[in-house]
Design goal:
The strands form three sheets. The chain has a seven-stranded mixed beta sheet with strand order 10-9-8-11-12-14-13, sandwiched between helices. Strands 2-3-1-4 form a four-stranded antiparallel beta sheet. Strands 5-6-7 form a three-stranded mixed beta sheet. 30% of the residues lie in helices and 32% in strands. It is built from nine helices and 14 strands. Strand 13 (288-296) and strand 14 (299-306) form a beta hairpin. It has 308 residues and is α/β, with parallel strands linked by helices.
Amino acid sequence: MAASGGAPFGVGPSWWRLELAALPELEESLLWKLGALGISRVAVQHRPEDPGERQLVAWLPAIDWPEPERSQLERALAPLAQTFGLVLPPIRWSEQADEDWSLSWKQHWQADPVGQRLLILPAWLPCPPEHADRLVITMDPGSAFGTGSHPTTRLCLEALEGLELAGLRVADLGCGSGVLGLATLRLGAASVAAADTDSLAVRATGDNAALNGLTAQVRVGLGSVEALAALLDGQPADLLLCNILAPVIQALCPAFETVLAAHGVGLLSGLLVDQAPALQQELLEQGWRAELTAQQSQWGLMTIRRVA
């Protein structure tokens, strides 16, 4: 029986394990770049009590990643840090036997309480008794899409707890794993329309909706803001979630009126704090009043409403 890396089980290490510090500025970019390179077995390790100390871990089939390719990967990742005026943290490589990689990957995930009411729970774990009173969002972190651990996602999840969501229609632009939309449903929203330009994200959102028994309340499609507007059937949502990078938000905001109703609220959570002023100005020119309402480290959460 062959392993997915091409080597038979039990015949030496067949996976390379990559580890590096996940600096807050770089985490989203690293996850995106690894996914774009076809590296989907990725985890971001942190302790719930210390989310600032984060480690990115990825597993690569050894047969596909000999030394020249690993060196080329390091060179491909380095410019991501240069964009922020940083140096890419040192990358550590270690070999791992085929039969061990899946178990070790799962060990990086644990029940993760967010805010006062939510719990992100890996699909293979039971709910810890001490969190039995929380609203559980079951996730299968099988790809490089968010599971609630990144600061931008946590900012948005915590903000959702402060909103009255009962009966609302929600639009999730750049849905990734679907965790934000699923959280709104757990908090009382009526339905979620979600879209992403990555087909793997579309699949992940659908799979996670099924894990939570929420398939009937979630519509997900492939594409950007136009696809999201189509899913909404011409009726803009009451709440817009948009956890994507600031330049992308800036490019898409002229179309926000097609997905967010005039009375609605938008949560934008993929931006760095120092990007907020320029984004606020662009949103104002499009008719949206934007406030920076929360921040964690260098990341900010912006709340938008229609200018009266």
